[in-house]
């Protein structure tokens, strides 16, 4: 299941943005690049909210259920953090229990998506935002996390419907962010540096899963993203 982000946050002060912008203005091309970076951070300041559409999903087949705001960090990906990875998790519990704990602010972790045995997909965090799911801040910032209901030592939990639905979801994510469909960019939680988790475990059929993702990635594009930001 998801794991807390790790690392300490770094606040961005209004004075830092103003002073940095003034300094950048006199530095030619380098200054312009620095100011462009600063300009993308303005909305992170206290009291500034980037407009969002309530209940919007990034994958058209998903149902929206919001995770607690304590379990993710507001962002503007891929503008502020490039997305180049999908991380596969197993919940070590039921679908309902995963959704419930991700709504609990005391849990401290959540993934973007949860996939049920019958292929149903719930989205709990926008792909724009950083979910606390990998236990590694850098990997959280660059990835989309997908939980799968079940237990790592119970292969019957990984159904045909689950594999197929998850593969279509991952293929859509790879299409949106131009992520290569390979095992360097689609990884298990166990492969995240510093993690103490073992999911998705030895019974997750990576060869089958990657074959399904590749097939879905090259299929004719269907409208899978939903309402704009």
From TrEMBL:
Per the UniProt entry, the Enzyme Commission number(s) are 3.5.1.28
One Pfam family this chain carries?
A: Amidase_2
Q: Which PANTHER family match?
A: N-ACETYLMURAMOYL-L-ALANINE AMIDASE AMID
Name this protein carries in UniProt: N-acetylmuramoyl-L-alanine amidase
Q: Where are the transmembrane segments?
A: 17-35
Supply the InterPro entries for this chain.
Amidase/PGRP_sf, Amidase_domain, NAMLAA_amidase_2
Keyword match Cell wall biogenesis/degradation: yes
| Keywords noted in UniProt | Cell wall biogenesis/degradation, Hydrolase, Membrane, Transmembrane, Transmembrane helix
* Reaction equation(s) it catalyzes: Hydrolyzes the link between N-acetylmuramoyl residues and L-amino acid residues in certain cell-wall glycopeptides
């Amino acid at each position: 299941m998801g794991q807390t982000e790790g690392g300490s946050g770094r606040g961005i002060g209004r004075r830092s943005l103003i002073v940095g912008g003034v300094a950048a203005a006199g530095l030619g091309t380098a200054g312009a690049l620095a100011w462009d970076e600063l300009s993308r951070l303005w909305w992170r300041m206290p009291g500034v909210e980037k407009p969002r559409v309530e209940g919007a999903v990034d994958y058209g087949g998903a149902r929206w259920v919001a995770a607690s705001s304590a379990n993710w960090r507001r962002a503007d990906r891929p503008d502020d953090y490039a997305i180049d990875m999908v991380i596969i998790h197993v919940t070590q519990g039921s679908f309902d229990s995963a959704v419930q704990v991700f709504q609990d602010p005391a849990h401290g972790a959540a993934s973007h998506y949860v996939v049920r045995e019958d292929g149903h997909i719930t989205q709990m965090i926008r792909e724009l935002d950083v979910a606390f799911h990998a236990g590694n801040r850098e990997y959280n910032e660059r990835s989309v996390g997908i939980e799968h209901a079940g237990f790592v030592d119970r292969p019957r939990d990984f159904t045909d419907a689950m594999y197929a639905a998850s593969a279509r979801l991952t293929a859509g994510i790879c299409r949106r962010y131009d992520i290569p469909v390979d095992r360097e960019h689609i990884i298990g939680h166990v492969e995240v540096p510093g993690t103490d988790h073992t999911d998705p475990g030895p019974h997750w059929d990576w060869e089958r899963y990657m074959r399904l993702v590749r097939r879905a990635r090259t299929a004719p594009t269907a409208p899978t993203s939903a309402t704009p930001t």
